[in-house]
Amino acid sequence: MRQMFTSATLKLTGWYLLILVVISLLFSFIIYELSTSEISSRLERLQVRLEGESQTITLPGPLTLTDLRMNQTKEAKTSIFIGLVYMNIAVISIGGVGSYLLARRTIRPIEEAHEAQSRFTSDASHELRTPLAVMKSEIQVLLRDKSSSKQEYREVLESNLEEVDKLAQLSQSLLQLSRLDYSADIQTNRIDIHAAITSAIKSLHIPATRIQQSQLTKPFYVDGNESMIVDLFKILLENSINYSPVGSVIKIAASANGRTCKVHISNEGEGIDKESLDKIFDRFYRGESSRSSQHSDGYGLGLSLARKITTLHDGTVTATSTPGEITTFTVTLPQVRKNR
Q: What pTM does this model have?
């Protein structure tokens, strides 16, 4: 695959260089014609003026003024031609390097997008194959055992149902990511940040004892898609719940400075190591070591969705963590005034 992009880069470089050469030769031809024509014209006028004067002009050997004019014209044309040749060699040399760099810059985003798509397809295929393999093996074992009881059949069906739910969850996440990837415009309206957080908490059925939310001195508003913003907070809250000790408190704080609105969601737990902090927003990424004693059955798509939602709203989402103590996710979104 890399060979294909290398070949495309070289072809694009060739086309850029060809266009540059054609333009350079065209301008060189124009410059040559205009310059030689101007020199010939001036030498002719000079000859006419000298011939019309009464002074005697001594010329070397049998040369006439016409011969002298023709020699000077020939030398000027040769000098201009050589200069243009050197100029074109320099243009082609510098242009070749520039064309290659421009071609690489043009191809690189396409190559990166293709690599990202390939990784995404590979990861998605792997994640889809795992639950299907589990379901198939359980059913095969059950069918081979002729003495299986009704209870065993029930247990296998319940296990398969769990895997189906996982597949449905994965499919929904993949569809949502795909839809967001191609969302050029989103329908927006005025959103109260506090109301969006409250809606997310209610939809997740988080007990009030697990939430500690700082009181806002005044409401904060952002322009955005309400369902997306609620989903954003649901993802971050659910992540905090999954990776924190049972019964621990999730802290939520919001602030604004007139230009941006920030929401901090913090949870206790084992935290995230420095290496993983740079990767947790990548698709299908799951740290090798759990940040809590609980087991998470997620597919590593939630935080990718969160980052995509904030990007679509011209915002950012970042994470900081002190291993063994606290992990904080910070959402930054452009703030708008209530009366705007």
A: 0.60
